[in-house]
Specification:
The protein folds into 7 domains: 114 residues, OB fold (Dihydrolipoamide Acetyltransferase, E2P) (Beta Barrel), CATH 2.40.50; 124 residues, Beta Barrel (OB fold (Dihydrolipoamide Acetyltransferase, E2P)); 68 residues, Beta Barrel (OB fold (Dihydrolipoamide Acetyltransferase, E2P)); 106 residues, Beta Barrel (OB fold (Dihydrolipoamide Acetyltransferase, E2P)), CATH 2.40.50; 46 residues; 117 residues, 2-Layer Sandwich (Beta-Lactamase), CATH 3.30.450; 148 residues, Alpha-Beta Plaits, CATH 3.30.70. The protein has 797 residues and is α+β, with helices and mostly antiparallel strands. Helix 16 packs across helix 17.
């Protein structure tokens, strides 16, 4: 698998070739002393590794060939060569082609880089002429960081969105930084489009990254022959081993279409999926190479891994079945293949020797392995066994290391009976083990980012149990709990035989305990959400919103199945309904504490018949009943605080509140409103003659008749034993109020029939109109009260 490390990754041996290419092969400057300022790229390339580490001062005069400081990518070139520049803490508004003075110090990397303290504009300078290069020169690294031109055919072209990830990875490799550290990484935020090309040169593929591609149609580039100018670089794995070539281009203006495609690829005829190999054709001019190393993994007829004592490793794909043993020194004849994450050889032949050089396993952590630093290396890791899988062709151990999971795999080849007999024993979950094997790193995406890894074991001896799990496991705890439960049941049965009178109660307790224990195990994970629902029930949240929270809680328990609530008043709350239109829907009634049916919860789907659905609906029904009862209780309390309990008319508190609203509205709009004060005549005589129960019914019927004669916007309030006030919030004139008074007076035209009594009543009525009769509540009530008493006759019942 490949990984972009930009163009700053180079073998030091390439530097001399770069310098010679830029200076005609004659430039070989001496290394400067510690106090001398380096003024050319060639001088920097000539430094030894120890000199680079000292951070020697640098002042270079040249031109920017690629400039994206926010993504951590700056390339610079002078007359002696090209080099990568680590962006300064604060950078200027420069552009590709600007002449600059780069000041800073040397920093070690694959090849030497310059860590800039400042980039100063330096007037104008001619842009370097691109050097035409071949694919083999790119792969050899002789043109690293140089401005070059290449010619090739476009095999793929896609628009990508840059988020700086490739630059962050480059920073990490170049300076040993984490992906989130440093000012350069913090500056990477804005996303922008770029064009990613796979260019097929004469010799192999090159990846091309082009900025500023507005107006370019990627589809039209397919199969075109193009010439591209840019900065040469390489693709490397986590061990900095080269696996491919790369070109960085500042804009689409540096790409020239030499020969467009013969036809639009979108117009190609459809090829059946099972016939796509009819278009396959590859001409491979790769040279056979010979490598030597010790065998660390061997699967006859399939693959092998060689590793050297200095940590270099290669995966070998071979059909050979020559008997080999671990540590045996072997020569491999084969062809390099860039198709893997790290270096791979294919079509290989093995040349065994009599020498043996065992390779010790390197202890590594999960972070080191996932970073791709040990591809195909023999490593050892420790972890806790989470589970194991035994299959016909392989055994797999799944291990936890910190908060991460990785796999250790022991494969069994089908060509060798010696390997067919290999199998891992069964281990106990929770064991602390050490596994030794070959680290296979798996990556993907346009930048071949590491995604996961696994260890390929060679034999059962590669697994060592360090610490066995404790005897007191969860399973054994359940066994002990089961035994104790059985003992409790036996004791209960014995008690039932001795105490027949309490048999029913004891049996109910046992059943309740078992049911509660089972239910708690199933819904423990929902306790937090259930608590939130209870908080909502006791809050001022709307009832429909509380019911929706309950429905979501039920749906979560039942893996997202559709559910809703049918209230007794016909209201539907939830996703669907009614239940008669849903096949195999399960209903659960909602009942109040007094047994009143409040509605029903419904779940759709055949799976809803399972026991889990019944428990979820039971819990939801109890919560819904609590929510509805609480809301009723709240509404009842509100009603009692605002309405007279005998007549259901408004009380003084509600009347005062609505009078304040009427006063404020009338004051703003300069309108009128009225108070109608009503006092029942001879009401005490009704109580004395017929009794208080008849008097109470009489008051109720009077209030009912008054309410029928008033408008919907009017408020009838009982303010005393036999006194009522009607608030008329909107009137045009006093005549309109007099009309309302007449309607109220006519309420007594018909006698009141209560039990066997017929009561003819009457009332004294007084009115007050705002603002003529007063501008405050008290003034209006005094005027209406005075008028009422002035109109009060001496009536009899």
């Amino acid at each position: 698998m490949q990984k972009s490390s930009l163009v700053f990754v180079l073998l030091l041996s390439w530097s001399g070739t770069v310098v010679a290419a830029q200076t005609g092969g004659s430039l070989n400057p001496p290394a400067p002393g510690p106090s001398r300022v380096l003024t050319t790229v060639a001088q920097i390339r000539a430094l030894s590794a120890d000199e680079v580490k000292r951070g020697l001062p640098v002042e270079l005069h040249g031109v920017l060939t690629y400039y994206q400081p926010a993504e951590g990518q700056i390339f610079f070139q002078d007359e002696t060569g090209g080099i990568y520049i680590v962006p300064p803490p604060k950078y200027r508004n420069l552009h590709v082609g600007d002449a600059v003075i780069a000041r800073g110090t040397t920093v070690p990397s694959f090849s030497t880089n310059v860590k800039a303290s400042d980039l100063e504009p330096d007037g104008k300078s001619p842009f370097p002429r691109p050097n035409p290069v071949s694919f083999r020169e790119l792969m050899a690294g002789s043109q690293d960081c140089q401005y070059v031109s290449i010619v090739g055919s476009v095999r793929s072209a896609t628009l990508q969105t840059s988020n700086g990830q490739n630059a962050v990875q480059g920073l990490r490799k170049r300076e040993g930084m984490t992906a989130s550290s440093g000012p350069e990484a913090a500056a990477i935020a804005a996303e922008k489009p770029y064009l990613l090309l796979d260019l097929e040169m004469d010799g192999g593929p090159v990846r091309v990254h082009i900025e500023q591609v507005q107006g370019i149609d990627p589809l039209r580039l397919l199969d075109s022959l193009v010439k591209i100018e840019g900065v040469a670089g390489g693709i490397f794995d986590g061990k900095y081993q080269p696996t491919g070539a790369e070109l960085w281009v500042s804009s689409g203006e540096h790409m020239q279409v030499l020969s467009p495609a013969n036809a639009n690829p979108a117009d190609l005829r459809i090829t059946p999926i099972n016939r796509i190999m009819s278009g396959y054709s590859v001409k491979d001019a790769s040279q056979r190479v010979r490598v030597r190393g010790s065998v660390t993994l061997y699967e006859p007829g399939l693959q092998a891994v060689l590793e050297t004592v200095d940590g270099q490793a290669v995966l070998v794909n071979t059909y050979e079945q020559t008997p080999l043993h671990m540590g045996e020194v072997v020569d491999v004849l084969g062809f390099p293949d860039p198709g893997g994450y790290s270096e791979v050889m294919r079509q290989a032949n093995l040349l065994p020797s009599s020498a043996t050089v065992p390779i010790p396993a390197v202890p590594v952590g999960w972070d080191e392995a996932i970073a791709g630093r040990y591809p195909y290396d023999l490593v050892s890791m420790e972890g806790t066994l989470a589970t194991e899988v035994h299959e016909r062709h392989q055994d797999t151990l799944v291990l936890r290391s910190g908060g991460h999971i990785f796999s250790a795999i022991l494969s069994r080849t089908v060509w060798n009976k010696e390997f067919d007999g290999l199998s891992l024993p069964e281990y106990s979950a929770g064991s602390r083990v050490r596994v030794t094997g070959i680290c296979f790193v798996h990556a993907g995406g346009p930048w071949n980012t590491e995604r996961w890894f696994d260890l390929q074991l060679r034999s059962p001896e590669d697994v060592t149990v360090l610490v066995s799990p404790p005897w007191w496991t969860v399973r054994r705890l359940l066994y002990v709990s089961g035994v104790l439960l059985l003992l409790m049941m036996a004791a209960l049965i014995w008690a039932l035989m001795l105490q027949r009178k309490v048999r029913k109660q004891t049996e109910q307790i046992r059943l309740t305990m078992e049911s509660e224990a089972a239910r708690e195990r199933r819904i423990a994970f929902l306790e937090k959400e259930r608590g939130r629902v209870l908080e909502a029930i006791n809050s001022m949240l709307n009832l429909d919103e509380v019911l929706l929270m309950i429905l979501r809680l039920i749906s979560t328990q039942l893996e997202g199945r559709s559910c809703w609530c049918e209230l007794a008043n016909g209201t539907l709350v939830g996703e669907t309904g009614p239940s008669q239109d849903i096949p195999r829907a399960v209903r659960r009634g909602i009942y109040s504490g007094a047994g009143e049916r409040l509605g029903a919860l419904v779940v759709s789907g055949a799976e809803a018949y399972q026991e889990q659905a019944g428990e979820a609906l039971e819990m939801g029904a109890s919560l819904a009943a609590l929510a509805i009862d609480n809301r009723r209780l709240y509404e009842t309390l509100i009603h009692r605080s605002q309405y007279d309990q005998l007549t259901n008319a408004a009380n003084r508190f509600l009347l005062e509140s609505r009078m304040e609203e009427a006063l404020a509205h009338a004051s703003r709009s300069r309108s009128r409103f009225a108070l109608v004060y009503v006092d029942l005549d001879q009401f005490k005589h009704v109580n004395d003659f017929y009794g208080h129960r008849v008097g109470d019914v009489y008051l109720q019927q009077v209030a009912e008749r008054f309410s029928e004669k008033l408008r919907g916007m009017d408020t009838l309030a009982r303010v005393g034993g036999d006194e009522f006030i009607a608030l008329v919030p909107v009137v045009r004139n006093r005549a309109e109020v007099e009309e309302i008074v007449q309607r109220l007076a006519h309420c007594f035209d018909t006698p009141f029939q209560i039990d066997d009594c017929s009561i003819r009543g009457s009332a004294s009525i007084g009115i007050a109109v705002y603002p003529e009769d007063g501008v405050t509540k008290d003034e209006l009530k005094r005027v209406a009260d005075a008028m009422m008493y002035a109109n009060k006759p001496h009536a009899s019942v």
